[in-house]
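Why this split exists: single-chain examples teach little about how molecules sit against one another. For that reason, every record in the complexes split bundles all components of an assembly together and asks for one structure covering all of them. Below is a record exactly as it appears in the raw files.
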Amino acid sequence: MNILVTGANGQLGNEMRIVTRGSKDKYIFTDVIQVEGLETTILDITDIEAIRAIVRENDVKAIVNCAAYTNVDAAESNQELAELLNAKAPENLAKAMKEVGGLLVHISTDYVFGKEPYNTPCREDQKGTPTGVYGLTKLHGEQNILASGCDYIIIRTAWLYSEFGKNFVKTMLNLTATKPELKVVFDQVGTPTYAYDLAQAIVTILANPKTGIYHYSNEGVCSWFDFTKMIAEFSGQTNCNIQPCHSEEFPSPVKRPSFSVLDKTKIKETFKLEIPYWTDSLKKCIKNLSENK
Ligand SMILES: NC(=O)c1ccc[n+]([C@@H]2O[C@H](COP(=O)([O-])OP(=O)(O)OC[C@H]3O[C@@H](n4cnc5c(N)ncnc54)[C@H](OP(=O)(O)O)[C@@H]3O)[C@@H](O)[C@H]2O)c1
């Protein structure tokens, strides 16, 4: 099968490149720009004719959409662009797959939830209540895919990190190594997800897809404060005094969900997935980062 990956220069896209090495399927990795050292076909997913052309020319039977507008703060003042990338572009991909009877695997977010004060893990059929523009535009993307009538798998994930690009783990590795003190919020609770684990799950799902919305993060629950404590511990940074604080102490253009833990029962049962515990995966990522220094 020929499978197209969008946003292949991002965190998840790079992990898709790694986990599909040696695959029997043909993967075509695309993004908006070329990056040195990465084989990338240029594709702007806001351009439906460009999508149709690449699908036709390569006989694409599935698309894995790893592209998005992912800057949660900046989305608040760039709603039009966020809507274009997170809602209109997935609709383009869905239409292109509908036209050829193909499958769209689309990645969404735990931030489609959060306005309601939940305290139990969010399920797939729970109503979306985003707290900001990013979550709202991602929710619109899901709705557009459902309305297109294409075969789809929507995977909502959370707190993604990897060895690639900018992410919380890399930021905190730097801060805990250089600052004597650090305050980190403990009133936002969720689950980190190692993009490598998610990429592996996507490959498993592609082998035997069943249309629907699914939730995937690593196992377990923590706050950003707990996450930072573990990042410091696993990287051997003992000199930084890390303290919990409230979200109000960090003025932000967007209110983030206080609880967005995802219930993963459905994805585990449907695809017989074993999901790693979050600290086990974090350890692996930090080890990889330190070895590739
Ligand atoms: N990061 C998280 O914490 C998180 C949490 C939950 C869900 N998610 C979801 O998980 C998915 C993957 O996230 P990620 O962190 O891997 O994202 P990422 O690192 O920001 O990568 C996104 C990629 O999409 C590219 N892109 C931007 N505009 C495009 C366009 N018009 N056409 C094609 N590609 C375009 C970006 O290029 P440029 O960098 O050059 O713009 C980038 O390479 C996204 O759907 C995201 O919403 C992420």
